[in-house]
From TrEMBL:
Domain AB hydrolase-1: 22-253
Matches recorded under SUPFAM superfamilies: alpha/beta-Hydrolases (SSF53474)
Claim: Hydrolase is one of the keywords in the record: yes
Keywords: Hydrolase
Gene Ontology cellular component list: membrane
Identification of the protein by name: Alpha/beta hydrolase fold protein
Organism: Fibrisoma limi BUZ 3
A GO molecular function held by the record: hydrolase activity
Keyword Hydrolase: yes
């Protein structure tokens, strides 16, 4: 379903019901579809809301407005529009950084009063993300090219995935709008939001694959925990960066456990 949020149309997938809402946010070059298997496992207990961030999936792609703050504002406005009162944010990679900023704004935004927890999968840190310059350039020049999307998929997965999942991951990569793609690589991933991390008041639970080549476990210990010391980090042996695609059952169980805690 499309919702007019913050001046643009955001595509939102909803499933299930329950006293707690889980708001799912996707990785760079992904879409809300990465959460489908996870939502299937959780929708009997939770209201599940998965969002295509601006410029990705089926959401509108404006020419500008792709800062971490812009994306965080979209989520805050969506919470208000959907009347969500008791919720957790589940962010992955790029959107992990977005979720951290949303949580940091809770004390000053009445719409966010109901935020109970953050569950983050391999989140981009609150300081510049350590993407090697050559890799950043390859991603910039490879936008919209299937060969580049296929190579990215190979780089960021470690466990086998189905052919259907493979094709969806590639399709999501290829339909990412150029303004959103370039903005994250050249600006958003380099933003520093560490100064406000001390304002986060909710539990933060991090899950990362041991074989994650995009944001390895040491990124969490070196670039996230110093700014979010209350966070816990769990590691999935043998998994890569795309945890919701690679191990949806592990992700669903982790979310359930951390929300229950």
């Amino acid at each position: 379903m499309k919702h007019f949020i913050n001046g643009i149309q955001l595509n939102v997938r909803e499933q299930g019901s329950g006293p707690m809402t889980l708001i799912f946010l996707h990785y760079f070059g992904g879409s809300a579809l990465e959460w489908q298997s996870v939502m299937n496992l959780l929708s009997d207990r939770y209201r599940c809301v998965a969002v295509d961030l601006r410029g990705f999936g089926d959401s509108e792609a404006p020419d500008t407005g792709y800062s971490v703050g812009d994306m965080a504002e979209d989520i805050t406005c969506l919470v208000q529009k959907l009347g969500i009162q008791n919720f957790a944010l589940v962010g992955h990679s790029m959107s992990g950084k977005v979720a951290l900023l949303v949580a940091a704004q809770q004390a000053t935004r009445a719409e966010l009063a109901g935020l109970q927890a953050l569950v983050l999968l391999s989140p981009s840190p609150p300081v510049p993300e350590p993407i090697p310059d050559d890799e950043r350039q390859k991603l910039l020049t490879g936008h919209g090219q299937r060969a580049s999307a296929e190579q990215t998929l190979k780089n960021i997965t470690a466990k086998p995935i189905s052919d259907t999942a493979r094709e969806q991951i590639i399709a999501d990569d290829l339909r990412s709008a150029r303004p959103a793609w370039e903005a994250w690589l050249q600006e958003g991933s380099l933003e520093t939001i560490s100064d406000c991390m001390s304002s986060i008041q909710v539990p933060v639970s991090i899950l990362v694959g041991s074989d994650d080549q995009a944001l390895p476990p040491e990124v969490q210990s070196e670039l996230v925990l110093p700014y979010v010391p209350q966070a816990t980090v769990d590691i999935v042996p043998g998994a890569g960066h795309l945890l919701p695609w690679e191990v949806p059952d592990v992700v669903a169980a982790f979310i359930s456990k951390k929300i229950a805690d």
